[in-house]
Amino acid sequence: MTNETTENKPPQKLRVLSGIQPTGRFHWGNYFGAIRQYIDLQDAGDSYYFVANLHALTTVRDAALLRQLSLDAALDLLALGLDPNRATLYLQSDVPEVSELCWLLMTGTPMGLLERCHAYKDKKAKGLTADAGLFTYPVLMAADILIYDANIVPVGEDQVQHIEVCRDIAGSFNHHFGETFVLPKAQLLDGSARVPGTDGEKMSKSYNNTLELFEEPAAQRKKIMRITTDSRPMEQPKEPDTDHLYQLYSLFANDQQRADMAALYRRGGFGYGEIKKALAELAEKYFAEPRARRAELASNPKRIAEILGDGASRARRKAAEVLNRAKKAAGLVL
Ligand code: ADP
Ligand code: TRP
Q1: Fewer CB atoms inside 10 A, N or C side of the chain?
Q2: Best substitution site from 35, 204, 205, 251 to test ligand 1's pocket, by max atoms within 8 Å of Cβ?
């Protein structure tokens, strides 16, 4: 069966899935690029969101730290509005079916496909040694997605290549063994698929340029004041759209505030310090409610364990069904 025939089937139920790695505290890029979409999509159909702790093992190799970051990740997602009654939230490692499907998929994945993937390629280009986990990372990601028949995967721009790999792997499996998997699509948010960091590069935990969601306000204000800016004289008009401070401000501003700020840039004669202060205030207000909710949730770890346990049972039911379908198709069930 080709990709086309799978896609030409009558529209199925919308099934949304995404995962996020607990490799550090979540930042504005994670929220505006990915997490905000998770929350918006939780009523769009069946939705599954997970803390990708198996993927995180390729970078975090400290058990206590991984436990802490995984709990932080779950708390953050819940505090930001993920509702366990409307979406299924779980830890990736609590669904062992995914690892089993990963092997099945791995046997049909060409090395060349993985050699082109950026996480591995970038590490190699930097002369760092990569392990088999990092190399096969996109296959585990494909298993994560395919095992829930997910058709929509909300992510930031940097994950699009991985979703394409997932489609290739699924298409090839379907071709060999008959139609088994649904082909997923990446879903990006306009305007925030690539949030810049304090240095203007893509905001990322690995670049030390993040503004975290639940950082202490005073510490965060200091970081905001250190956002890099150009050294052109204050009087000179500037183009807002290519300026990362303006882009960050725009994430929090309403239409009027954004238009006023753009006009100020084009007029010139302003100091960046004022804009940074305004940005710090807007950001603090924006996350004030989730911050309070997070503190409340953090005081009840039993409830978090319950939510994740319940999420894992729901996820495993669906995962077992699809894994069985794939095993039958591949001749593993006698
Ligand atoms: P990081 O690069 O900080 O390690 P992850 O790779 O864990 O972030 O990304 C988690 C999710 O957040 C992914 O869906 C990713 O696309 C999204 N994301 C990460 N950084 C950004 C960014 N700067 N802008 C938009 N989305 C981002
Ligand atoms: N690789 C993703 C990231 O770094 C995390 C992830 C793992 C994921 N499995 C996934 C995202 C499945 C979407 C779907 O952000």
Answers
A1: C
A2: 204
